[in-house]
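Can't paste images in this forum, so I'm doing it all in text. The chain is below; anyone willing to post the predicted C-alpha cells underneath?
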Amino acid sequence: MMDERMTQVRNKILSEMAMIMYVFVAAAFAVKVLLLGKGIRDCVVEYVVLILAPLYQYVRARQLKFSLYQPENSGRKQRVRRNLVSVTVGALVFILFFWRSTRQENLDANEMVPGVLIFAAVFLLTKVAIVRIEKKRADRLEREYEDEGEE
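Text version of the structure:
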C-alpha cells in the first residue's frame, strides 16, 4: 500500500524524468537545426513535443484546479537570473541560426529579422499574459480553498 510520502517521491521522480526528456528533445532539436542544418520538416516529432508538453501541463493543471504560478518557491533574484539565462540562450540560438542560414542558403538576414522579432514579441506577450492570468487564478484558488477550510 502506498502512503502519501511514497506517492510524492514517485511523482517527483516522474516529474524529473519528464523534465530530462524534455531537455533532451530540445537539445536534439537544436542540434538538428543548428548543427546538422535540418529543416523543421525533419524535426516534426521534436517540434510537436516541444509545443505540446507545456500545453498539456497547462491544461492539466487547470483541470485539476492547480496553479503553476508559485513565486514563493523561488526568490525574485533566482527568477531574474533564470530569465536572463533563458534570454541569453535564446539569443545565442537565434544568432547561430542566422549565421548558419545566411552562410548556407544565401539568405539575407534583413529578410529574416522581422519574422524573428515578431515571434519574440508574440512569445513575450503570451508569457506575460499567461503569468498574469495564472497569478490571478492562484489568488482565486487560494481564497477558495481558505473559504472551504473555514467551513
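The two ends are 32 Å apart (CA to CA). The chain has two domains: 1-64, 71-151.
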